Amino acid sequence: MKYTYKNTIVSILFIILTNFSFGQTNEIKITFIGNAGFHMTDGNTNIYFDFPYKSGAYGYMTYDETELNKIKDNSIFIFTHKHADHYSKKIVKKLNGKIYSGSNRKKISRLEKDISDFKIKSFRTKHRFSFNHYSYIIDWHGKKFFISGDTEHPETIGLIKGIDYAFIPTWILFYAKEKNITIDAKTKVLYHLYPNQKVEEKPTTDFIIFDKQGMNIK
Ligand SMILES: [Zn+2]
Questions:
Q1: Whole-prediction pTM value?
Q2: 49 CA from centroid of ligand 1 (Å)
């Protein structure tokens, strides 16, 4: 009887410890879901950008319903704006977790109290037909991620130095070139493509093209 009791305690401790160390991955994993939507996690905190959106909106990418079931509990959802290819009012209403978009984006800085590993800053950026469009910079232990969203204006990203991963639509490359603006990013992640859209950019080491849903960056 005593032995079993001890055994149970040992097993419980083992489960707690292995789960704990599993949580401390100390690296960021990013999974592309579709359009400008992706999941970012360090094993402890789960952040979704521009997801859930309306599947197939404006001829952009569809996604399987199972993607919604995969959403982790107590996640953080950050939206650049509320166009249907980035945001679904219907689905977002049913989410539990913290939801940020233009209207409450200033509260995002308060997150640092709970999730000290991530520092998140928002920038107002312009996008046609949207009065409330924001780009974000995420700092995770000095690793910088820039989330551009749909903005057509490369001026904001042009001001930021030492980005590790810049999530940008192809048109930002075009406008940056036109305006002679340098994007100082080690890796440019081209996202928000149409299904089967081909990108001219060569898949060199400083480019990742989000053309296959489910692909990962580690
Ligand atoms: Zn869009």
A1: 0.86
A2: 12
